[in-house]
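#struct-pred

JT: dropping the chains for the assembly here, can someone run the whole complex?
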Amino acid sequence: EPEVTQTPSHQVTQMGQEVILRCVPISNHLYFYWYRQILGQKVEFLVSFYNNEISEKSEIFDDQFSVERPDGSNFTLKIRSTKLEDSAMYFCASSDLRAPEAFFGQGTRLTVV
Amino acid sequence: DAKTTQPPSMDCAEGRAANLPCNHSTISGNEYVYWYRQIHSQGPQYIIHGLKNNETNEMASLIITEDRKSSTLILPHATLRDTAVYYCIVRLGGQNFVFGPGTRLSVLP
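RK: done, full complex below.
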């Protein structure tokens, strides 16, 4: 069964460093999403991406964040100058035009120390 | 903010049906009702979705009231592995998914 793959599963970084979280969406899906979940809190929307551009973003997704689809398979989330409060699980998801449900990856646990 | 209201927690005996309610009184005509679940800190797992009609798949059944203001997710024979947080989400096609706090279902042996 096709699935969304995220790497790494766990990333530890020092405060102020830049991190790139990687996602391989399901092949032929056209919509891509990033969500995050701070420990013990709800899943929060960050950004959606379609046709090589951001289609929607939340207030959380400020200038510190950026997304990119560098090739035909990867979808990345870059977090610049990480802060302690960026520590969270980050989930990537994808969906296609014909099936409205989105499928989520298993997440990357980001720990900023 | 989430447009749905769910009880914060529920218990269910193993082998029995789990019925998880959701209120979405402000749902619009084109919005679908989706159910996802999250086991521990894993990624949310899609369960089922519907617009007006009741739906059934290999995981669950979705019962939507005629006025579409509420729905019920039914797990027909709950197992210990169904212990998770269950999210009811209403969404227009193409929009992002807005997660609320969900219902924490505990399946008890």
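JT: nice. Chain B has a mean pLDDT of 94. The first strand of chain B starts at residue 9 and ends at 13.
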